[in-house]
Amino acid sequence: MAKLAVGVAGVGYLGRFHALIYARHPDIELVGVADSDAETAQRVAEEAGCEAFTDATDLIDRVDAVSIVVPTTTHLAVTRPFLEAGRHVLLEKPIATSVEEGREIVDLADRAGVILQIGHLERFNAGVMALADRIASPRFIEAHRMSPFVARATDVDVISDLMIHDIDIVLSLIDSEIRHISAAGAAVLTDHLDIANARLEFANGAVANVIASRVSRERMRRIRVFEHHRYQSLDFIDQTLDIAYPEKKAGAEWPEIVAERVDIEPVKPLDAEIDAFARSIRTGEAPLVGGEVGLRALDVALQVKQKIEAAEA
User: Fold this and answer.
1) Between the CA of residue 289 and those of 58, 120, 218, what are the distances in Å?
2) Is the pTM here over 0.90, yes or no?
3) pLDDT at 214
4) Is residue 256 within 8 Å of 246, Cβ to Cβ?
5) Burial class of 75 by CB neighbour count within 10 A (0 to 12, 13 to 18, 19+)
6) Position 308 confidence tier, pLDDT thresholds 50, 70, 90
7) Are 200 and 143 in contact (CB under 8 A)?
8) Which pLDDT band holds residue 154 (cuts at 50, 70, 90)?
């Protein structure tokens, strides 16, 4: 079977990792990388053993598929020519800056009949996959995603940068439409929201409380899911999943809470994401996080932001 010819458009911090993973993948040939900064493109190309370009469109005739890891504001402009040429696309999250642009990207992929996968990396976290396999009917979800301040992503707010990961996970776990959103947040160190809290209420009665901060002293990545007679807690950082449930012993008036830890075999999420992308191309199987999934997460994230802006007006 011939190897997939793949390129990477945008090889800054995250795009470089895409390129290096493609370069060592047994079923993929990394043809080239492109970046508007010629020095960056050349440096990563030498590291990954491929050609360097400064114009992403130079990759189109050379590849079957591409990872697009450029600023969100340029997603539509960079992605459109690849989709129009019938190339498969792994597009970093969020899918776009607006629902309208996101919809255009999804429609372009549908018309071309190609794979469009959105890079919601946490869906390929081994702990998240183990949690999803064990969830039946969540009633309440609480997610915390806290980080110390770093200057790398200050061009976007914390909702697009961090919270959208947990919004996407919550939407994948609760099979119901959102009925109401309430939110609060504040800009602390940048001109954008640096801390935000959202409460998502679903038509089936489930509720999710999602908190994200990039001005915290310590890192925290945790999600807790409450179901009838069961509670599960996932620590993304330690890759531990704890399940607690009531157990009534003979003669006891009340049940006691019994906990057990699920063994999780760690995987590298970006490797798993790229493996899944290649598999979808080979088999035609719909990606775990396709365009419509990415678009829904963006829509909810933008509604959260609008709720906060309206409260501040």
Assistant:
1) 27, 7, 29
2) yes
3) 94
4) yes
5) buried
6) very high
7) no
8) low
